[in-house]
Amino acid sequence: MEVTDYELFEIPPGLLFLKLTTSDGETGWGEPTNLPYSRTVKAATTEVMEKYLLGEDPLRIGDHWQAMYRGGYHRDGPILMSAIAGIEQALWDIKGNHYGAPVYEFLGGQCRDRVRVYQRIGGDRPEHIASEAERAVEEGFSAVKIDATERLAHIDAPAVTDHVRQRVEAVQEAVGDEVGVCVDFRGRASKTMARRLVTHLEPYDLLFVEEPLRPEDIASFPDLARHTATPLAIGERLYSRWDFKPLLDTELVDVVQPDISRAGGISESMRIAQMAETSGAAVSQIRPRSPLALAATIQVSASIPNHLIHDYGFPGQEEVHDYFDYSAFSLEDGYVNIPDGPGLNVDIDEDRVRELDAIEVDQPYPLRRHPDGSVAEF
């Protein structure tokens, strides 16, 4: 059996899907999305497929990962690792379908019966966020995640800090102390503001603070961790085990957050989780942008002993992603059942995917500015 064909689909609002086909007629799906650069990742995925994977045995996943990563002089980074991630997910899907077993069976088998997930909540006003948090709990979630703030100056006014506190307080008052609350700084805080904010949020016993520092300030992470007892999570913009290693070596990271579609796929996410376990860190995989990435994420979470919780997706995404059957990923009491179907257990309406691919996708360059006109963090 060999890989004989591939197709790439651009799906609104900028997702990228990959379909692999083998000489035996078996297929596998993967998602190499990296917004807003999905078209760049599409070009990288095409190059890897054309220069290497076509004609190869799809079952030799470990060898293919090494070849895709080490086959070129320049490696790592968000573009190549996203391309590898999507290809590798599709190879795992083929392997599972070929042997009639879920992917997690090849990763060591299940470590749990179900996977805890949280719901992301958008919005800015505390009352709106609190209302959405209540709705998420009513829908069955036992944890929610909110953004800390839209943008931050290097050293900002006390009112900004107070606004962050009000958001957290409003959510906790709305949902009670049995619901976990995560706060995402989105790397918008300088190391100075990060220290100030985590200190002010200390009384709220948060599940964790996500990406308290931007990647450029990651060397300051150990110092920040020593200033707070609040669990700190990081990893959305790290792309391989070598990116995570310096942080994990400090043993001060509480939660690591590899992205299944950016950090080299399923195999690399497993390796990062294993490294985290030796450093006493939990794993909260980050941001599956579509049901396809969610399916791959669940395979890893089912297989690792140090899974904490991970993202389920945006509210109402069942309607947005109408090309996917969600029934295998039902939510109950804050957990998603682990599907027992073969491969990634994805049921995709390919005709609908092709219809969506025909739509021109606009991927605006997200740019925020401070009041003085200078560029703010994403």
UniProtKB/TrEMBL annotation:
InterPro entries: DgoD-like (IPR034593), Enolase-like_C_sf (IPR036849), Enolase-like_N (IPR029017), Enolase_C-like (IPR029065), Mandelate_racemase_C (IPR013342), Mandelate_racemase_N_dom (IPR013341). It comes from the Archaea. Coiled coil: none annotated. Residues 126-231 form the Mandelate racemase/muconate lactonizing enzyme C-terminal domain. Pfam families: MR_MLE_C, MR_MLE_N. SUPFAM superfamilies: Enolase C-terminal domain-like, Enolase N-terminal domain-like. This is Galactonate dehydratase. The lineage of its organism: Archaea, Methanobacteriati, Methanobacteriota, Stenosarchaea group, Halobacteria.
